[in-house]
Write a structure and sequence with these properties.
By secondary structure, the chain is mostly loops. It contains no helices and two strands. Pfam families: tRNA-synt_1e.
Length: 69
């Protein structure tokens, strides 16, 4: 049996390790008020909530529903 499959046939996820390098990428979001991309900083430590006004969806929500054309 392959090393990447468990006894039940499900794939095992490799352990995660942070990327190597000095620069940490920063999430930047478009601010429609200032019309500029600005760095994102969570208001409550590491907890983030997200509200997106958009189309009515009839299935599980995902980030693709938040895209702008």
């Amino acid at each position: 049996m392959s090393d990447s499959l468990s006894a039940k046939g499900k794939r095992l996820q490799p352990s995660w390790s942070p990327p190597a390098g000095g620069d940490v990428p920063q999430l930047r979001l478009y601010n429609s008020l200032t019309r500029a991309k600005e760095p994102f900083f969570p208001q409550r430590g590491t907890r983030v909530t997200w509200y997106c006004c958009g189309p009515t969806v009839y299935d599980a929500s995902h980030m693709g529903h938040a895209r702008y054309r």
